[in-house]
Specification:
Length: 119
Amino acid sequence: QVQLGESGGGLVQPGGSLRLSCAASGTTSSIYVMGWYRQAPGKERELVATITDAGSTIYADSVKGRFTISRDSASPTIYLQMHSLKPEDTAVYYCTARESSGSGDRDHWGQGTQVTVSS
């Protein structure tokens, strides 16, 4: 079983920066992609960024040039460095990990960390 633990959320002023972390634990050898999603009040959960075990990344258009996803492959941990934060970035940010298994891919989710951008 895979467990995901997020940290780093908080309150920041517009234009500020935050870094989120997500550490995977348990049986992590089959994880091949990890990423971040977010959900704002009254909205659906949306992709923010993903990174594969080969280091390939995908970003939502709304965060390109402002957010950077990275990973520490030695200990399955990913980071989301967020710059130039805007009020519309306010949301609960969820870490996710996808692992391959004999019965098909399986997704795991963290409990989420709140990011609030406000003056």
